[in-house]
Amino acid sequence: MSTLPDHIQNTFKEALAQVPQRVLWKYEGEMKDKPINVMTSKWFPQLDLLTHPKVKLFITHGGISGVYEAVDAGVPVLGFPFFYDQHRNIDNLVEAGMGMSMNLMTIQKDELLNNILELTNNEKYTKNAKITSERFKDRPMSPVELVVYWTQYVVRHKGAQHLKSQAFNLTWYQYFLLDVIVVIFIFLALVIFITYKVFKIVYYKCLKYSQTIKPKSE
Asked: Membrane-spanning regions, if any (predicted)?
C-alpha cells in the first residue's frame, strides 16, 4: 500500500477514519496523517488475526493465500483485484456472497466507506462466509493429514512413477509442439501452393480462350 499513489492512499485514510472499528493496515514505513483508529506495521500474523472472533472484515488484493485464509476463517472480504488470478479469486468470493469487489484505480471515498459499512454491518456476508468456511473444511482429512498421506503414498510406491505426467517423457521438440507446428505449416504451404496452381491454370485457360475469341471477332 505504501507504493500506491497518494490520492489512493488518502482515499483509504479518509474512508477508514470514519469506520467505528480499529483498523490494522500492513504498511511499509511511516504513514503521514494516519487516522487515530489505524495501526500500521510492516508485518502482521495474518492467519492469527483472521481467526480472531472480533475480526469483521479483510481487505485484500485477492492473492490465493489470503483468499484461502479468509475462507478458512469465515471472514467477509473486500477485494481489490489487480492482475493474474486475483480477479477470479475475488469473483468466487462475491459469488459465494461473502465479499465485494472494487476497482483500485477508480476508487472513491464514499463508495469505499459504504462498502466497508455494508460488509461489516450486514449479517448476510458474515453468515455466507461461515457457510463457505464450513464447506471448505468439510473434507475426509485435514490438509496436514493429506500431506502426510501423499508423502507416505509416494514412499510406499517408490516414487509413484505411475502418477507422473507423460510430459516428462516427451522430447524437447514434442514438448514445444514443434512437430505439430511443422505439420500445420506444411499443410498450409500445400494449400497455398495448390491454390496458386489452380488459379494459374484457370488464368492461362482464360487468357488462351480470350486470344482465340479475339481473331474471330475481328
From this structure: 172-199
Extents of the domains making up the chain: 6-138, 139-165, 170-212
pTM for this entry: 0.73
Report which of 93, 41, 44, 104 is spatially closest to residue 70, judged by C-alpha positions.
93
**Tally of CA atoms within 13 A in the half-sphere of 86 that contains its CB:** 19
- CA gap 102, 64 in Å, rounded: 17
Q: What is the predicted pLDDT for the residue at 128?
A: 98
**Cell numbers 507423460 correspond to what residue?**
166
**Which CATH code fits 6-138?**
3.40.50.2000
| Distance (Å, whole) CA 93 – CA 76 | 9
Work out the number of other CB atoms within 10 angstroms of the CB of residue 199: 10
What does residue 136 show for φ and ψ, rounded to 5 degrees? Answer: -65, -35
Residues 107-147: tens digit of each pLDDT: 999 999 999 999 999 999 999 999 999 999 999 998 899 99
d(CA 20, CA 89): 28
d(CA 104, CA 11): 10
Cβ contacts of 59 within 8 Å, gap of 6 or more = 77, 78, 79, 80, 116
Q: Residue with C-alpha cell 500500500?
A: 1
